[in-house]
Structures are given as C-alpha cells and as structure tokens.
C-alpha cells in the first residue's frame, strides 16, 4: 500500500442537511442532519485510509476550533501534520433536497497569515521524503495567493513526487502552470480554466487536449451524472455511471480522485482504474459523506459501471449540465 500526503489549505466543517424541497423565506422542517470535518484533501484522505493506505494530512488548520478535525484524524488513522494558524475553520452548508438538488454554501474561512506558505513549505521539507504522492485539494483561504499553489506543486515535483491537484479558479490556473502530474476538474472548473462554456463531451475533449500541451499528464474530468473523461498518455477513456438513487453529490469528486489514485498506485489496468473510481463515486452520491468501498451494493455498482475508449461507438456526447 502507498504513502500519501494530502494538503487542504482551507478545511471546513460540512453541515449537511437532507430536506424535502425547500421553500425559501419559510420555516422548513429538515430530515437527517450531520456535521463533519471535511475539505477536499481531508475527504480524499478518508477514502484512501479506508482503502488501506498510509495517509498523512497537512495544510492549514484554524486553531480556534481544531477539535472535531483532530478527533476525526485520530479515529480514521490519519497522521495529522497540519500547520495551525490563527482563526476559525469555516462551516460549509450542504443542502440536499429530495429529488437530488444539492446547494453548497461555502464560507471564506480564516485569513491565512503571511507566514503560511513558508510554514507549509518547511513542513513539506520533512514530509515529502516520506510519501509516494501528493494531493492538493480545495480552495484557498483569504491571504493565500494562487502563486502559493504553484510553489507547493513545484516543491513536491522537484522532490520527485507526483502531484494530483484538485482546486478551482486562480489557484487551478497557477497550479497548472507549475506542471502537476494530474488534475481533477469538474466541468465548471474546466470551463473556468478555459474561459469558455463546456456543454458537451467534445468541448471537454478539446479543453483536455489544451491542458495536455501545458504538460499535465493526466486530466480526470468529472462530469456529474455523465461520468468521467480521463485523458492519460495512453489515450482517452470515458466512464458511465450506473443508475443510483441520488442523495448528495458532496465529496463525490474527492471519492473519484481517491479511487483513481488507489488504482493507479496499485498498478491496475487503466479500464479497471476508471471503473473502480467511477463506481465508488457513484456509491458516494447515495448518502451523505465520502464513498464507502465496503458498502454492500458496491460490487453491483462496480459491475454496472461502463468504461470505453473515447470517442467510442454510439456516443451522443451530450452532457446534462
Ligand atoms: N447523479 C449521479 N449519479 C451517479 N454518479 C454521480 C452522480 N453525480 C456524480 N456522480 C459521480 O461522481 C463523480 C464526481 O461528481 P462531480 O462531477 O459532481 O464532482 P465534483 O463537482 O468535483 O464534486 P465535489 O467537489 O463535491 O466532490 C462523477 O464523475 C460521477 O462519477
Ligand atoms: O470551497 P472549496 O474548498 O472549493 O470546497 C470545499 C468543499 O465543498 O469541498 C468538499 C467536497 O468536495 C466539501 O467537503 C467542502 O465543503
């Protein structure tokens, strides 16, 4: 099993609420609610630890409310090497309405001190030799410049560690310039990078080709219910998800990334890697929280997940955006 380092620059407590369709401006009575420590790198770490990997979590953690995070790291066997910074970790609200509509209300979080990047780089000096791969996930807190993402990507790459990057906006743009090994944008994030709308798989393909010329070896585009397009040096593969009963898509992208890493690090064939990761992300959307490889219906989801080279036969290319 591999040793993986995940970096989350702006962790969050996710307050997830399952509710009947909302009536804005009225009192709404909710169903199941849950508050859990999260943020993209932490979510990826949880899935990888469940898959048996040795995972270290790092990044910036607000020192005013670290307790729930520290308890989660302990419970899930994640080695905690977060740099503590002054301030509160944000609370992100996830409203999952019956019918499958999910609304994210993501807060800004603490303000990163000027010393944050240097402290992180110092921490990475000791952590990088101990890991096989680095994941950088999520948005940047105020005060943390996009160029800081590029510096982290560069530091890890120079240490010979492949970087899997999953961020958005200016952080994604800057990070791509530093040449990560892999990125996992969703279609909105990809469109943001390209500065163009992306309405079908052909547009995804064109944009991915541009990314390859920027030196990114692996581009894993998550397309929601339309599955995944994976561009690698071996070519393009497209996966299609099995029919599932949708509860919340929060964490599905993180689960997908973790599943991809699990397969790639395990030396699986590309088709098997993508099938496994896609099926695990489909498992994730059936409930609140990250995907569970031990779920009783996972073998059946895996069996129903389709993977084929892209462009293949009978591809309509539509994305239901
Ligand atoms: N409605 C759905 N039915 C089945 N699988 C889904 C559905 N929505 C998402 N998935 C699976 O989860 C993957 C990731 O979803 P999505 O594209 O929404 O990621 P994301 O926006 O990065 O998510 P997040 O940032 O919340 O983790 C998809 O590529 C797909 O495999
Ligand atoms: O605001 P960011 O950092 O872009 O995204 C944060 C977040 O939405 O991503 C995870 C799901 O991928 C959630 O756990 C978390 O709240």
UniProtKB/TrEMBL annotation:
GO terms for cellular component: cytosol. Belongs to the carbohydrate kinase PfkB family. The lineage of its organism: Bacteria, Pseudomonadati, Pseudomonadota, Gammaproteobacteria, Pseudomonadales. One of its GO terms (biological process) is small molecule metabolic process. Gene3D superfamilies: 3.40.1190.20. SUPFAM superfamilies: Ribokinase-like. Pfam families: PfkB. InterPro entries: 1-PFruKinase, Carboh/pur_kinase_PfkB_CS, PfkB_dom, Ribokinase-like, Tagatose/fructose_Pkinase. It comes from the Bacteria. Catalyzes the ATP-dependent phosphorylation of fructose-l-phosphate to fructose-l,6-bisphosphate. Residues 24-293 form the Carbohydrate kinase PfkB domain. This is Phosphofructokinase.
